[in-house]
Amino acid sequence: MKYILLVGLGGGVGSILRFLISELTHKYHFAALPVATFVVNILGCFCIGLLANLIPANNQSLKIMLMAGFCGGFTTFSAFAKETLSLMQNNQPGLALAYTVASCLIGVCAVWLGMYITTKG
């Protein structure tokens, strides 16, 4: 039960932050590319990379709250998949491909960078 509450707490904060970033991005950005989800996914990847090395291995509660809860609530790859499909359905396969490749490659690089930064301190 403790872990469920920790995931809920972290997930709630992550979801709220994701919503706020989405609202802010939509307010100032008008391009076809779904920038809000892209930004959130890359930041989430970077964040989980940082947390992977910063949270002590024996602190399961913190790991569950921040990695499963916060990062899980913050990142939205389900929205990413839906938006990619929408781009394809709107006859924008090139943009859909570019969005998918950039999200995956930059996301992996962001995880690596987060882990690299926390091992070089």
What does this structure look like?
The chain is mainly alpha-helical and 121 residues long. Helices cover 84% and strands 0% of the residues. It contains five helices and no strands. Helix 2 packs antiparallel against helix 3 (60-74) and helix 2 runs parallel beside helix 5 (93-119). The chain is globular, with a radius of gyration of 16 Å. It starts with a helix and ends with a helix. The mean pLDDT is 92.
- Specify the helix fraction band: over 70%
Shape verdict: globular
Radius of gyration (Å): 16 Å
> How far from one another are the termini?
35 Å
N-to-C series of helices and strands: HHHHH
Roughly what is the average pLDDT, rounded to an integer?
Answer: 92
Give the biggest sheet: none
- Beta-strand percent range: under 5%
Key traits:
single chain; 121 residues; mainly alpha; 84% helix
Question: What's the short version?
Answer:
The chain is mainly alpha-helical and 121 residues long. It contains 5 helices and no strands.
Topology at a glance:
Blueprint: H1 2-28, H2 35-54, H3 60-74, H4 77-89, H5 93-119
